[in-house]
Amino acid sequence: MKIYEDRVAPNPRRVRMFLAEKGVTDVEFVPVGIADDGILTPEFLGRNPLAQVPVLELDDGTHLCDSVAICRYFESLHPQPALFGEAGLDMARVEMWNRRMEFELLWPIANVFRHIHPFFKGKHPQVPEFGEVSRAHSLKRLDWLDAELADGRSFIAGDRYTIADITALCGIDFGRISGIRIGERPHLARWHAAVSARPSAQA
User: Fold this and answer.
1) pLDDT tens across 59-104, in order?
2) Where do the CATH 1.20.1050.10 domains begin and end in the chain?
3) Which ranges in the chain are annotated with CATH 3.40.30.10?
4) How far is CA 64 from CA 15, 61, 100, 134, in A?
5) Mean pLDDT of the chain
6) Contact 140, 75 (CB under 8 A)
7) What does the angle CA 14 – CA 18 – CA 187 come to, to the nearest 5 degrees?
8) Which of 81, 105, 174, 199 is deepest in the core (most CB within 10 A)?
C-alpha cells in the first residue's frame, strides 16, 4: 500500500497520526507537492481527479481519496484501539464530535489560509472577505470548544483519545500559519498540551 501526501497539509497529517496511534508501519508514503503543482500532473490526477491529498493506493490499484475514508479503512483492518469509537452510542458520539471538529474548526481554519494567504494566489479564486468571515468563525469555535472542555474531560469526545482529537489538533495547529492561536483559552490549552505530547502528534 502507498499513501500519496504532502506533509505540510493538514489532511495527510490526520492519516499519519491515525496510523501512528494504530501502530501501522507497513505503508509507504509517497510525497506529492501542492506548492510545485505535483497534484496537477496527469499521473496524480489519474489517482485523484480532484487533485487532493492524501490518496491511499491499494496493491490492486484501488484508490481511496478522502482522509476519513482512509482512516475508516485502516480501522477495519486494525480495530483496536477503536479510534472511531465502540459500536453503539460511543461510535455515534465520536462521529458527532469528529464532524464538529471537521466542519466547525478544520475547514473554517483551512478556508482562512485558502482565501487570504499568498500561497494560493493564482492557484484558485480567492475571496478575502470570506477568509475573514472564516477567521471570525474559527475564533468563536475555539471559544466554544474551550467552554466544552471546561467539564474537565480528557479528550474531545470523552475519556478516550479518538479521531476527533486528531482532527481538532490538525486544524488548530494548521491555524498557526494564519495567525489563529489558542491564546487565553485554558481548557483548550490543557487539552492541546496533552494530545501534542502523544508520539503520534509528531507523525
Assistant:
1) 999 999 999 999 999 999 999 999 999 999 999 999 999 999 999 9
2) 89-202
3) 2-77
4) 12, 10, 22, 28
5) 97
6) no
7) 70
8) 105
d(CA 166, CA 176): 16
Residues, the chain: 203
> Under a CB-based contact definition with an 8 Å cutoff, are residues 22 and 78 in contact?
yes
User: What cell does 135 get?
Assistant: 477567521
* CATH architecture for residues 89-202: Up-down Bundle (1.20)
Which superfamily does CATH assign the domain made up of 2-77 to? Glutaredoxin (3.40.30.10)
**What counts of helices (H) and strands (E) characterise the chain?**
8, 4
Closest CA to 15 of 62, 53, 48, 59: 53
Q: With contact defined as beta carbons under 8 Å apart, do 1 and 56 qualify?
A: yes
Q: Contact, 38 vs 90, CB < 8 A?
A: no
Per-residue pLDDT reduced to its tens digit, 180-200? 999 999 999 999 999 999 999
DSSP result, 101-162:
HIIIIIHHHHHHHHHHSGGGTTTS---HHHHHHHHHHHHHHHHHHHHHGGG--SBTTBSS--
Side chain identity, residue 195:
V
